[in-house]
Automatic annotation (TrEMBL):
Belongs to the DMRL synthase family. NCBIfam families: lumazine-synth. It comes from Lachancea mirantina. PANTHER family: 6,7-DIMETHYL-8-RIBITYLLUMAZINE SYNTHASE, 6,7-DIMETHYL-8-RIBITYLLUMAZINE SYNTHASE DMRL SYNTHASE LUMAZINE SYNTHASE. The keyword Plastid does not apply. Keywords: Riboflavin biosynthesis, Transferase. Pathway: Cofactor biosynthesis; riboflavin biosynthesis; riboflavin from 2-hydroxy-3-oxobutyl phosphate and 5-amino-6-(D-ribitylamino)uracil: step 1/2. This is 6,7-dimethyl-8-ribityllumazine synthase. The lineage of its organism: Eukaryota, Fungi, Dikarya, Ascomycota, Saccharomycotina.
Amino acid sequence: MVVKGLGQLDQDYNGSEIRVGIIHARWNKMIIDALVNGAVERLKSMGVREENIVVETVPGSFELPWAAKRFIDAQKVAGEPLDVVIPIGVLIKGSTMHFEYISESTTHALMNLQEKVGIPVIFGLLTCLTEEQALARAGLDAGESMHNHGEDWGAAAVEMAVKFGPNAF
């Protein structure tokens, strides 16, 4: 059995007043592009204005936590602070321990980043055992076993920014 998506939202969230940062790795470009596009389309469908979606890139997933912190700080210094950030990366297991080290360290760093930056950090890191799993989670598989997880990350970003972001209280 495959559980699909984050489930039904508990209410309609209006993202028209939030700024969203998306920072993505460039490894596994085809999969990354689909995930980023899915997130952007979902953000826009929930009212986020296109000019309030800021996209930046980094070489790989390991660079996401540090670059996300710098990205958030730079937006604040520029007088255009973000309400939420979505780091997006794809890690696919190979024949060495590299996958385990990068997956674990990047996951922990992204989780801990939230407390440092004071805004929600959506976990947009796919950690897949095969390329087929990654393609399915990006909505690119030939079958209909999965959907684009980027859409879920976009919806989660709006919900978290509206309910718990810096302008929520």
